[in-house]
Design goal:
This protein is of the alpha+beta class. It is built from 9 helices and 16 strands. Strands 8-7-9-6-1-16 form a 6-stranded mixed β-sheet. α1 packs antiparallel against α3, α6 packs antiparallel against α7 and α8 crosses α9. The N and C termini lie close together (about 10 Å). The relative contact order is 0.20. It binds (3R)-3-hydroxy-3-methyl-5-(phosphonooxy)pentanoic acid. (3R)-3-hydroxy-3-methyl-5-(phosphonooxy)pentanoic acid binds next to α2 and α5.
């Protein structure tokens, strides 16, 4: 039975080991295996309603702005194929953090949209299937369906949970929002340019094979130092493929670099602050709860203009409201 409207929430999936590149652009499957944590407190909230029966269009608004239909067409076509329905959808989504600026709003947004659309069509699917649907919109969204620490293998259609959030309650990510403006180059275009033009792309794929298993072991042992070391190798090698593109892609701002240096200084003082970055200028710092206060104070002293969000391992996507006919 389809619903009049369904509201779902999901949180961003922050990759500790990065996926960068597609194994198959059409299926939107990742070229590299990634390990991530779902971030508590940051949230996309999406309400989906079926459009009138004669309507042939899906409409998506994010934070009040209508989105280009082509960004969502493949996603919705796949939803209709899976749920065996010709229903079209009207979706309104809001984020309580900056959109399209490298804080994985596409991961949380597509995860919430997936859960709400399936339920709206009256279909109850297991999380694995929802993960595969979300992946078509954004590969990192496949991970956002699940809570805690997650894994998306190279060429996989769906993500899996490695450890639930309770596994490491002291683990924190400090998200430092340097600018709220959207990114210049989409991650999709940047990945494609890396594949086509970076002389280091093949080495990136080869090297990335080792990182996920190493990260899984570090998380299992709750070893922040080991995990932090792997995180830094992963994001800096990912960016090396972008710096070496033709033309080069540089998401970093001077403030990003000053925070990378601050983390190095903090580690020199015995404070475990391990940074990572994605397709945008924001810096995310992995640490333990006990070090969070001092890390925040030092960032405030250095860059008082930055906004910060402190996130623990969070829960997966869920439905919060259903309005039945
Ligand atoms: O899910 P996409 O297509 O927006 O790409 C996300 C890519 C990174 O955030 C840079 C890495 C990752 O694994 O999330």
């Amino acid at each position: 039975m389809s619903a009049r409207s369904v509201t779902a929430v999901a949180s961003p999936s922050l990759a500790l080991v990065k996926y960068w590149g597609k194994s198959d652009a059409k299926r939107n499957t990742p070229a590299t295996s990634s390990v991530a944590v779902t971030l508590s407190g940051l949230e996309s909230r999406t309400t989906v309603t079926p459009t009138p029966p004669d309507s042939e269009e899906d409409v998506v608004y994010i934070d009040g702005a209508q989105q280009p239909a082509e960004r969502f067409s493949r996603f919705f076509e796949n939803v209709r194929r899976v749920i065996e329905s010709d229903l079209h959808f009207d979706a309104k989504s809001t984020n309580n953090f900056p959109t399209a600026a490298g804080i994985a709003s596409s991961a949380s947004g597509f995860a919430a949209l997936t859960v709400a659309s399936a339920r709206c069509a009256g279909v109850d699917l297991p999380p694995e299937n929802l993960s595969a649907i979300a992946r078509v919109g954004s590969a990192s969204a496949a991970r956002s369906i699940f809570g805690g620490f997650t894994h998306l293998a190279a060429d996989a259609e769906q993500a899996t949970t490695l450890f639930p959030c309770e596994h490491w309650p002291a683990f924190r990510i400090v998200v430092v929002a340097i600018t709220t403006s959207g990114k210049g180059v989409s991650s999709r275009d940047a990945m494609e340019r890396s594949r086509r033009t970076s002389p280091y792309y093949q080495s990136w794929l080869e090297d990335a094979k080792l990182r996920s298993e190493e990260a899984r072991t570090a998380i299992e042992k709750r070893d922040i130092e080991r995990l932090g070391t792997i995180m830094r190798l992963s994001y800096l090698r990912m960016f090396s493929t972008m710096f070496s593109c033709d033309p080069p892609i540089i998401y970093w701002h001077p403030t990003s670099l000053s925070l990378i240096h601050l983390c190095e200084t903090l580690r020199g003082e015995g404070i475990g602050a391990w940074e990572t970055m994605d397709a945008g200028p924001q810096v995310k710092i992995a640490c333990l709860e006990s070090d969070t206060e001092v890390i925040i104070r030092r960032i405030e002293e250095l860059r008082p203009e930055c906004r910060m969000y402190v996130c623990a391992p969070g829960t997966g996507a869920s439905i919060i409201e259903t309005d039945e006919w």
